[in-house]
Amino acid sequence: MLSGFKAFILRGNVIDLAVAVVIGAAFTAVVTAIVGSVFNPLIGALFNAESLAKALPVVIPNTGGEDAVIYFGAVIAALIQFLLIAIVVYFAIVAPMNYANKLAEARKPKVVEPEAGPTETELLLQIRDLLAKQNS
């Protein structure tokens, strides 16, 4: 049982996944800082709000107490953050990997498969024809 666990842990893809999670967490912090410090104030200024998280408020009246407020700006901020992460991941990781794979594929020698010989049935037909030719 322990040898199976050891084999699982030492697989390359498990280690790659662990590295990806750590890098992803660090990268998320960078994108969150950019969105919170650059994009939120810029877009918040367009909507006369302190930040994007407080922009586009929709007030829902509550007769029993405080009114509820829905901030659609926070949703927009999350969408911007998602798009930024997706753009950076694509252009920093996916596109270079696709290009590297394309180059590696181009460098591989082209394997030319030999033409397939006649099938067993075709050989038997040729033998039959030769035997018939010899007997006549």
UniProtKB/TrEMBL annotation:
<keyword id="KW-0813">Transport</keyword>
<keyword id="KW-1003">Cell membrane</keyword>
<keyword id="KW-0407">Ion channel</keyword>
<comment type="similarity">
    <text>Belongs to the MscL family.</text>
</comment>
<feature type="transmembrane region" description="Helical">
    <location>
        <begin position="12"/>
        <end position="39"/>
    </location>
</feature>
<comment type="function">
    <text>Channel that opens in response to stretch forces in the membrane lipid bilayer. May participate in the regulation of osmotic pressure changes within the cell.</text>
</comment>
<feature type="transmembrane region" description="Helical">
    <location>
        <begin position="68"/>
        <end position="93"/>
    </location>
</feature>
<comment type="subunit">
    <text>Homopentamer.</text>
</comment>
<keyword id="KW-1133">Transmembrane helix</keyword>
<keyword id="KW-0812">Transmembrane</keyword>
<dbReference type="Pfam" id="PF01741">
    <property type="entry name" value="MscL"/>
</dbReference>
<dbReference type="InterPro" id="IPR037673">
    <property type="entry name" value="MSC/AndL"/>
</dbReference>
<keyword id="KW-0472">Membrane</keyword>
<dbReference type="InterPro" id="IPR001185">
    <property type="entry name" value="MS_channel"/>
</dbReference>
<keyword id="KW-0406">Ion transport</keyword>
<dbReference type="InterPro" id="IPR019823">
    <property type="entry name" value="Mechanosensitive_channel_CS"/>
</dbReference>
<dbReference type="InterPro" id="IPR036019">
    <property type="entry name" value="MscL_channel"/>
</dbReference>
<protein>
    <recommendedName>
        <fullName>Large-conductance mechanosensitive channel</fullName>
    </recommendedName>
</protein>
